[in-house]
Write a structure and sequence with these properties.
This is Tagaturonate/fructuronate epimerase. Its cofactor is a divalent metal cation. Keywords: Isomerase, Metal-binding. Catalyzes the epimerization of D-tagaturonate (D-TagA) to D-fructuronate (D-FruA). The protein contains 19 helices and 15 strands. By secondary structure, it is an alpha/beta fold. It folds into three domains: 3-65, no CATH class; 76-360, TIM Barrel (Alpha-Beta Barrel), CATH 3.20.20.70; 362-468, no CATH class. The strands form three sheets. An eight-stranded parallel barrel has the order 6-7-8-9-12-13-14-15, surrounded by seven helices. Helix 11 (309-325) links the parallel strand 13 (290-292) and strand 14 (330-333). It starts with a strand and ends in a 9-residue tail after the last helix. The mean pLDDT is 95.
Length: 481
Amino acid sequence: MTLRTASLTADVTRTSDGSRLLLRASDAAALAGFDGELSTDGGDHLLAGPLSHENAVALRAAIPALRPQLVTGHRTSVGTGDRLGLATAGQAAAFAAVGGDVLPVLAQQSIREMDRLGRSAREVMDEATFGLVEAGWDRGYGADCDHIKTTEGIDRGLDAGFTMFTLDPGDAVQDVTAGATLEQALALPWDVLEDTWEGTLARYAGIRVEVAPGLVLEPDEQEVLTAVVKYAGAVAEAIGLYRHLREGAARAGYEVEAEIAVDETAWQTSFFEHYFLAAELRRLGAEWFSFAPRYVDGFEKGLEFLGDHEELRSNLAAHHAIGELFGGYKISLHSGSDKYSIYPLAVEATEGLVHLKTSGTSYLCALEVVARRDPELFAEIWRISRAAYARAAASYQVSAQVENTPESLEGVDLLALLEGADGRQILHVGYGDSLTTELVDGTPLVERLRAVLREHHEDYVAVLVPHLSRHLEAFGTVAVR
């Protein structure tokens, strides 16, 4: 497809040897900011250039639809991560196929994944830009610098032009399963919190908050102590990140928005703990459009939801109701890919005020193409992922059993392996080792994988569209607020 404006048309071509940006304009001045080979065709001026950072910046300057926008104001939104930089065209096509008013977040990757794969924030943004051109997408999109734990990560996102920043203070969440103590509370960073333990206790102990009919928060002193020990350090960490983001955005001269995420911890966020987090962050001046607590169990990577659906429904409804107490913000579903059964209930429970994040599922779609087109490469990816699983699994919610899977793939149905729960999770979490390995001939595995996807890019789009459409159907029918 081609992306057209009044002064310029743009397209991207993919081949196994690489990709090119093709531009056409009636006025040569429209091509002045781009790098490439110039030629003419009748009365038009043509440019063929590389998919470089300079050309991505020039595209975003020339075509407003290629500049990421704020997610705030859109009732539903869905993020689709892209570990390989080649999925955006298929992802955009899926949003187009489903329709509705859901806003796509088509540039999304965590700082952890960027570092693991040796990608820069600029590369994530630029590759999404070229994918949008390839798809002819002109309806707007968001850009999420995901799961940020340091101010340095914020700076990288601002430099690349990201507009959404997911602030993740999860490392500061404390384990209180053995019971919280006053000694732990007194050791918290009260100077950063601009408060004291006594002041916090007086503010929360004995309050009565009616969150929704049948749901009343009435914390006693021990519940307050538990929430403070568990999450006050995370509040301090989050407000530091938030203030750095605001100061950096002011210097950069453009608007940004924040999501707060404490989902990547081992301990569920209670309703009072959510209330405490929101109240304390608001007291310190933070604003956010989306919040990701740690939900009830059942969110494993790459699989359907494995928990109790009615428990999840009531859990989401309560978190949504707490969000409404603070002006209304989205409840964010992380590790949300491939959980088709919960999307309708999530939309219902949150009244459509929800943000879904997917990431690894687009990588698994890429492996489906590889299984068909380069079984030898698929076998190597399987070997690496299977060997790395025990270590890689420590960072994720997974339950795959390696002993239930074949070591050799001779005679194995590769697509069936990819669809099976054990194989799917092994491949899902093994991406870090696979994509940073060199093949026997010295070629980086990721480059061979990308070459297969460029050569068979129509196949990749054809796999992505129906797969992601299944994720989007429940979200695409919710109107913008």
